[in-house]
Input
Amino acid sequence: MALMLLLPVLLPGCSPSTLAEEWQLDRLRLLAIRADPAEPQPGETVTFTSLSYVPGDVDWTAVWLACVAGSATGCAFDPSVLDDLGDLSTMSPEEQAAAFAALQAAGFIGFEPMLSPTWAVPSDALDGLTADETLEGLSGTVQVSLTTADDTELVLKDVPVSLAPTPNHNPDIGAFAVDDATLVLGAALTVSAGQSYDLKATLADGALETYTYRTQDGVDEERTEEVSWRWYTDDGRLESTDFGFSSTDDTPSEDVITWTPDAAGDAVVHAVVLDGRGGMGWWSVAATVTGG
Amino acid sequence: MTLLLLFLSLLMSPALAQDGPVAPDAAAELPPLVKDPALIEFVPAPYPAEAQAAGISASVHLLISVDATGAVTGVQVLTPAGHGFDEAAVTAASAFRFTPAEDASGPVAVDIEFDYGFTLAPAEAAAPAEQPITLEGELREMATQVPVQGAHIRATRDGVQVGEATSDSAGRFEMRGVEPGSVRLLAVHPGHQDGEAAVEVTAGEVTHVTVWLRSLGYHDGLVATYDKERPPEVTRRTLSMTEIRQVPGTFGDPVRVIQSLPGAARAPFSSGLLVLRGANPEDSNVYVDGVEVPLIYHLGGFRSILNPNFIDSVDYLPGTYGTHYGRSTGGVVDIKTTSKYPDRPETSWRTDFLDSGAYVHGRIGKKIGFAAGVRKSYLDLLLKAVLNGTGAYAAPRWFDYQAKVESLDSGSDQLSAFVFGFQDDLIVRFGDGSEDQLGTHYSSHRLVLRYAHPLSDTLKLEIQPAFGVDGTRFGFGSLFTFDESKLLVDLRGSLQWKPTTHVGVSVGLDGEASREGYSIAVGSVPVDGDNALSESEPFATEAGVWQFTPDPYVEGTLRPLHDADRLALILGARLDLLVRSDVKVAAAADPRFAGRFEVFKGGTLKAGTGLYNEPPQGIDVYFGGDAGFERAWASELGWEQKIGPAISADVTGFYRWMDQLNVSSGFGEAPGSTDGAASGVGRAYGMEVMLRHALVDRFFGWVSYTLSHSERNDTPDDPAGWYDYEFDQTHILTAVAGYRLPLDFEFSGRFQYVTGNPYTPYDGGLYYMDSGRYYGFPSANTNSARMPAYNALDLRISKLFTFTHWQIECFADVLNAYNRKNPEFIRYNYDYTDHEYITGLPIIPSLGFEARVNL
Output
């Protein structure tokens, strides 16, 4: 019976879809969040930067919350503070500061674009854990609500909080190449619509970290991060042989994708790398697409 | 001028209906016929004077009822001819004598269609008596080579009869005094086309000739027709193979035809899931000769697990069946295998785009019958050839086998051994051309022994032990493997006592002992499943459960009226016992009642009600928590009406209440908050209507309509907790029609309209950045939306070519003839803000053939 049920799941997977792909930027998206430091200790302050896509020239807001589930403080948000917030754009600086203080007291750590997200990890976040347990730590949760007048994107992001002797660092992309030609960060790129380009992102030296993991049997293992890559664009299509059933990668420190823009004008391509331990990095390319 | 009567008959062909007295055991199976009736005494009818004077020839189409002794008990005119022919034919046919038809239990009553022909012919010359035999021969049926008994043979020369004979039981005939020279032989026999032969009679010798007759009904494996139900089941639909074979969309597979009957919901993507009267697929059982099997279809749902030639009948019991069956709260499908073994071994080979199979059956000596079949699919290879390099696909690959030997010494002990099994794999081919079995493997094997011994004229003992092993393996390389195995021993035994035609009692044991075990190995699994950043470690686990269900049952049948067929009351009880190695013991009692009453000729009231308990199925065996039996109380009330010799109608209302449902893991049940607790309830109710035209005068067909509603509630205390069951289909309309064209062409079509299945819609999603996945926000109202309705037309045409020693049937099926894009599943985009439908099978033409050779 189980396989009878499985078949309808597998067969449709082979049929072509007309739905938008995840790499297509055609609506409000929050693509990546980078916490610095990537694995804070209790009492440390974490700053966040994000990579988002907002179509058109529209106003947007991003409400940030953070907490450590399972900690002594726990996750207790008071959403009513948003109801009492009022119109920040008409407030005086003093009134805005008071409003931000009230937000932070209620568990809110950011209210973009006015208040950049900053999180002071509770100093008691790991209280109650054994010394061994504090090495593994707990997972802080960051919740972001990115909103425009027409759309909302809800995102969860974990931020490990620990006393690990080798805390995680965010991976950095050190190089970006188009058809094997290196592209300097921030440099302009001009491409032709309808033509395919191989885009390659490469991790910076040392970005692929090695760390110690204590198994459930109490054995310490040396592990190397297993990174994953995500690509996004708002023009044309992205294709990769790694999409789908790819399970091995001989060169984990780099990733290649084929981009075929199809509309003349401005376009963006983002490469995002995740290290599997909460760390993130990205490289964005602004391109001018000329008519084919 | 004298009169010649030509008797042309469709004997034993289109619709041979078992009728009359019911089988002695209360748990009557309505088995297929193992011996066809044969006309042994033909009575010529006087030629109507009016017609003779007018020079009119004609044929009268009759329906002749023959009792278990071979005597004619009734004759109806199906197609009148007028001019006095009808009366003459009825009078003559009423005096016919037949050898009785037999099923596995012995002689039974049947209905036979018969064409009584009247033809004006030249005067006959009387054959001189006491002349030497100068011409002899034998009559045999083309392809099967079976001797034709009771045929009338005339020898004529220049239009004048010079000899006449009737073939004996070996098909032989002799003629005396036929002078040397050329003569023309004409052989006429019911059920066969006229056979002719030109013979040169040689002086001083006995000239020998073989005349081949072509059957009018090669296809008609005799299975009692639909709706001739017998107690204890209120609704037992046994299908004629003639009709089954011609139903489009079944690929010629008899089992698939149940998807065209009332009460059966349409399964998506031809998956073949059995959803009967709103029950969970896992709650309906499939049996082969009374032995439960895990699957009814091979992967993909295109083929049943048995070679079609091995199937004699398919019993479809969607509702209140007797205590003979148990361990299920849904319906039952019982596939009966062949008990027909021709004197000469017959082989067949069948090929179409899905698979090829071979089959042979015959006799060893006179007392042992045998049958064997094997089949192998190649759909995956065809897809590989067609789609090579154009993308990924998943395709099933299967293999099945069957072998059976049976003693044929009727009247004494009966013994049979039957072994069958199958293996299925799911082949996945990736876009880069690589191929993997996904580790997917499904296999099942059974050995069934049966012994029947008549203790006396009224007492019969049957014992049927069975042994089986099932295996499932599913995996994805080294990432994940799941193995499951099941060993089982079944024992069925019954004692059937029938002192009179008015009383019958059956006492039996339906026991099963099984050991089910699984092992899971995962290459890497998060230590903390709730944390996307959790480190992962290898994981492996295994478990096993012994389960023993020795269920005794008793069932009594009472036929209190003088005409025993008019009223039948069946009362039975089954004790469900469950003993498990994890120290779980459960017991439940299933009282069941059914009755049928022929209120007036052709009008029958039927009713049934009963409890049905089911031990844990599927993954509930391991993860069902404290779940014991799931339970259903099923009831139905209906009316059958014969509208004419060929047309009947059936209206049945049903209600099924289900409780003690394990809401946490059963397929089709929404995940419940009461994990592992058997607290769910359900109800299904509706009405089934079927209007049927049996295969008479070349035409058969039926229209079936089911109006139903099936619901579940995982929190029974909350009246607002009811939601539509996943396969709830409000309207199911099926129309099937087939017509037998001249020159052995047959054409048929099937149209279906079905309400779409419910589903729970999503409205956006939450992006969990570290796992890179969106998690959809399901609607708070479970299954609050529906897929669009399904409709499709399937067509089939076949042509039979018959040669002296073999036959070949070529057929073409067209599924979804107007290429309707029927939504089957819903697919959301990455963030659950948009969706599209995955449509079902497009138009699929399929060509195939089946060749049969008599050795």
Q: What stands out?
A: The two ends of chain B are 45 Å apart (CA to CA). Residues 1-31, 122-127, 220-232, 665-676 of chain B have pLDDT under 50 and may be disordered.
